[in-house]
Amino acid sequence: MTIEHVRFLNTAPEYDLTYSDVFMVPGRSAVTSRLDVDLRSTDGVGTTLPLVVANMTAVSGRRMAETVARRGGVAIIPQDIPTEVVADVVARVKASHTVFDTPVRVTPHTTVGEAMSLLPKRAHGLVVVVDDGKPIGTISEAEAAGVDRFAQVHEVMNHDLLLVSSTDSPRAVFDALSTSHLAVALIIEDDHLLGVMTRKHALRATLYKPAVDPDGKLIIGAAVGINGDVAGRAERLLAAGVDVLVVDTAHGHQEKMLQALTSVREVRDRLTALTGRSIPLAAGNVVAAEGVRDLVEAGADVVKVGVGPGAMCTTRMMTGVGRPQFSAVLECAAAARELGRSVWADGGVRYPRDVALALAAGAGSVMIGSWFAGTYESTGNLMTDAQGRLYKESFGMASARAVKMRTKNAGAFDRARAGLFEEGISTSRMYLDPERPSVEDLIDSIVAGIRSSCTYAGATTLEGFHRLAVVGVQSNTGYDEGRPLSTSW
Ligand SMILES: NC(=O)C1=CN([C@@H]2O[C@H](COP(=O)(O)OP(=O)(O)OC[C@H]3O[C@@H](n4cnc5c(N)ncnc54)[C@H](OP(=O)(O)O)[C@@H]3O)[C@@H](O)[C@H]2O)C=CC1
Ligand SMILES: Nc1nc2c(ncn2[C@@H]2O[C@H](COP(=O)(O)O)[C@@H](O)[C@H]2O)c(=O)[nH]1
Ligand SMILES: [K+]
């Protein structure tokens, strides 16, 4: 089998490259519209967008999973979350609507204070007051302004509602919202509240395809570490209905990982024999071809690539170990492709261009953590700094904070000792972008970027993009030239 790889414009340099070190040149294209590009991932996980939310406690939970899968990606619930909690998250994600956003519901007697604390849980800015399943009013910041926090929502709620049938098309909902003064339509089925839709949601419903399982339910993944009862946790997660399992540790190319992965594969294969459905296994992290080959041999369908590029990660500064991420992805993707497998480019992604370059390098999907931490849908509580800017707190999965949580069942001595081996930061402020406060806004910009990258290369699929992309190496000033200026120079 000949595998075609991304081409370099000039001779590829001897040293390794980060995303910032490289750029792509346009090629002759017959693609007439960015809408003609199909962004379905080639990794076999079933996503219609090549995006995976990292298994980080400060990032990936139920709301993130549901919102991202509705747009075609998948989120991985971290290894530190107890299996019974993961089972509940999976059940709720599977029960959520594949098109309409999940409303924040309160009863008429809920206090205004409680309703306002729920408001930032979703990006649409509205809490729906529901009585016996039927929406009777809404409350947003406007209704709550200047009202006593102990007042009940039925006293102040807005009775002006835009009720739309669940059978109406997104375009009809968009038009109904455009001719009303309301920002959110309430979607009704048999008199009951089914979901909500904003104008942006209506547009997105025509641009994205949800990532669904064979029963048409939204997909979700979960992670296991390599310590403890790995096979037992894997079995419980599979029983809970996860659609992809991630076996994850800092140094993925270690024998304990190979044993853990082998045992998870056995559990998975038993389930496949019963159901006929093979749940893909992802494992990592590695940064070289040899690691990919060993993980694939032990059972990985997807290999997670990246040591040290993560925004919360101190590994490179602590140990000097890691590898510039573009080169790591390039080499690992080539090795995985030769074995008929795929890689996820994990970490260090801060701009749509980084996603595009990872895909050009041959990644099946791109894993994002910290960039998505600063959104309404991440797990943390929304905070406000002294200047009034909104942020969320994030932390690394190998930080003392995460290690303390992960080892909570160990003795005090062992916990304290484990805490000394931290390789991540315990607290970081991830500000919400006022222009793009929702993960869906970030996905919109990523998708706009990569659709456009594909057409510059003349590709209508990600496989074609990897084949056609021509990559060059640039200096710091080359990178700098590409940055927009918000003020004059
Ligand atoms: N992509 C990246 O660059 C990195 C990612 N992470 C993320 O942090 C999370 C926690 O991972 P992790 O710290 O592996 O925790 P785990 O709880 O998975 O434990 C790792 C296990 O591997 C052993 N181990 C041996 N060598 C190493 C090594 N060099 N680094 C770490 N562990 C080693 C540890 O033993 P002992 O403690 O006795 O040494 C422990 O038993 C994961 O989500 C991981 O993806 C963490 C670091 C880097
Ligand atoms: N060395 C560490 N790496 C970490 C830690 N927590 C997470 N990670 C890795 O980062 C990616 C996400 O990267 P991001 O740039 O999008 O935030 C994640 O999937 C892990 O591989 C940590 O504490 N130390
Ligand atoms: K880093």
From TrEMBL:
PROSITE patterns in alphabetical order: CBS
Residues involved in K(+) binding: 308, 310, 313
GO CC, alphabetical: cytosol
Record field: catalytic activity: IMP + NH4(+) + NADP(+) = GMP + NADPH + 2 H(+)
Classification via InterPro entries: Aldolase_TIM (IPR013785), CBS_dom (IPR000644), CBS_dom_sf (IPR046342), GMP_reductase (IPR050139), GUAB1 (IPR005991), IMP_DH (IPR005990), IMP_DH_GMPRt (IPR001093)
Active site (catalytic residues): 313
Pfam families documented for this protein: CBS, IMPDH
GO biological process: IMP salvage; purine ribonucleoside salvage
Highest taxon above the source species: Bacteria
Free-text function comment from the UniProt entry: Involved in the purine-salvage pathway. Catalyzes the NADPH-dependent conversion of GMP to IMP.
PANTHER family (alphabetical): GMP REDUCTASE
Protein's name according to its UniProt entry: GMP reductase
Organism this protein belongs to: Microlunatus phosphovorus (strain ATCC 700054 / DSM 10555 / JCM 9379 / NBRC 101784 / NCIMB 13414 / VKM Ac-1990 / NM-1)
